[in-house]
Amino acid sequence: MKSPTPDLFGPDAHKTWYETYTQLRVAAPVYKTPDLNMFVLTRYEDIAAVVRDNDTFSNEREKYGGESLLQYPEARAIYTERGWPKQFPLAVDPPEHKKYRALVDHFFLGESLERARPLIEKIVDDLIDGFQQDGEINFVSAFAEPLPTMVITALLGLPLEDIPQLKVWSAAWAAPFARGLSLEQEIWVAEHGVAFQAYLKSHIDERRRAPKDDIISHLVNAKFDGDRPLEDAEIISMLDHLYIGGNETTTFSLTSGLWLMLREPAIYERLKSDTSRIRVFTEEVLRLESPTQGLYRTVTRDTEIRGVPIPKGAMVHLRFAAANRDPSVFKDPDRLDLDRSNAIRHMAFSQGEHHCPGAGLSRLEQNIAFAALLDRLPNLRLTPGKNTFEHVPGFVLRALGSLNVSFDPVR
């Protein structure tokens, strides 16, 4: 079979992602992108092996000759001269990785996570209270964006009134992962990046003077590996990573979930009659419409995958969304199945040591949100004539630009 040559970075590539993944999985599961030292993986088995091999596939791209996230020196200089150089403590390689993750993981697991439930339930109810009498909303702006943003803002200990500016900084933080930014765009990213850093630094200084019961205060007083206090640059980097990871992808999943639910009436009716299926539904949404389509690793030494030589310094792009529809793992993979027994095996949050730290929080938010929406908004449906179901163009993230839904007003 002739190897495919898909345009992965074209303006319309996002419109046919799943067809492209199927083509690549069959004909070129280890696909070398033209003109780039990057290999795209689309089979579940290969991606699962890579995320567990931190010795060969590093999460620290520049350490082993990989490309910088910001391509232009002028943009990088803004961080070094006016802020702090970009770093990602929560994404470094072992053994330091576990030491950094140990400082934050407990907030998103077990009893600590359950303590966030009342906060999430209140925010969900308050949001629904604000529009349930309207009968029609843009779900993204009315619910899917504010819910996770308000939750992570409150958990970190930042003022809710700062959310509009925080959303701008979030967009700037995530932009470079799409690759291919112009110099002007990278300057914009860096300008907003150092402003975000300065903002976080002001709250770090405030917690040193007057600690509170929040994540910022915890990190200010934490000891790395039980030995030394964290430096400002480390705390800032951990906070901005948690903030972006704590809102963007959950917004995308909530929106995709309601879209998938309402476009298939049988799914909607079954969830209404059997809310115990919401947990599986949430996992199926994450599997089918992975908000993070894929992420990168850098090769630390010459290696090969499926006989394809991959040199040291090359980028390997792990296409999680392709793995999530791999028929060798998920039977009838393009179908949303509320009885799927292995739905939780998806890779929407990656796997292995570098799995998303906020996965538990995102799942909890989605489960609470879908249950409340089904309970409180009668006859929920897609608004006729007002939806294009267009996804926002992008290589890494997948998101519907808007979703208009209607329901019987509750007065």
UniProtKB/TrEMBL annotation:
Gene Ontology molecular function: heme binding; iron ion binding; monooxygenase activity; oxidoreductase activity, acting on paired donors, with incorporation or reduction of molecular oxygen
Keywords: Heme, Iron, Metal-binding, Monooxygenase, Oxidoreductase
InterPro entries in the cross-refs: Cyt_P450, Cyt_P450_B, Cyt_P450_CS, Cyt_P450_sf
Any Pfam family hit: p450
Superkingdom classification of source: Bacteria
Main function: Cytochromes P450 are a group of heme-thiolate monooxygenases. They oxidize a variety of structurally unrelated compounds, including steroids, fatty acids, and xenobiotics.
Family in the record: Belongs to the cytochrome P450 family.
Protein name per Swiss-Prot or TrEMBL: Cytochrome P450
Source species: Phenylobacterium montanum
